Amino acid sequence: MKHYIIDGNNLLGKIPAIKKLQKSNKQASREKLAFLLGRYFSKSRNSVTLHFDGHLKETIKVSGIKIKFSGSKTADDKIKIEIERSKNPKNIIVVTSDNNVAEFARV
User: Fold this and answer.
1) Backbone angle region of 97, left / alpha / beta, with phi > 0 → left and psi within -120 to 50 → alpha
2) How far apart are alpha carbons 42 and 37 in whole angstroms?
3) In the chain, fewer beta carbons within 10 Å around the N or the C end?
4) What is the DSSP-derived secondary structure letter of residue 5?
């Protein structure tokens, strides 16, 4: 089983409809991304963690996806911590456009 660790802020900026929504309503864009990923992974046996920068304002409940907010740290830092703590790092797939996080994951 694979474990997907997704940098939500990076992915928000890569999907045009969600990127546009993010400019006017950050919470709604996060919810839309979470539901989109929930549908995508609904029939998958893989686990998914979606990371966002900042503090939780409203709970986003999506079946099969764990959503984490970075609090006072950055989502990048939280993703790196999750990678470091993994019991089986070879099963991790990191989805990010951040070169620093991608390189950390590769190593």
Assistant:
1) alpha
2) 8
3) C
4) E
Distance in angstroms (rounded) separating the CA atoms of residues 67 and 101: 18
Closest CA to 52 of 25, 27, 18: 27
Structure tokens, 47: 């686990």
Beta carbons of 39 and 64 less than 8 angstroms apart: no
Q: Are 36 and 19 in contact (CB under 8 A)?
A: no
Residue with tokens 């950055």: 74
Enclosing H/E stretch for 95: strand 92-95
Range 54-77 burial, b when 16+ CB lie within 10 A, else e? eeeeeebebebbebbbbeeebbbe
Q: Rounded to whole angstroms, how far apart are CA atoms 66 and 24?
A: 25
1 CB burial (10 A radius; 0-12, 13-18, 19+)? exposed
* pLDDT single digits (tens) 47-104: 999 999 998 888 898 999 999 999 999 999 999 999 999 999 899 999 999 999 999 9
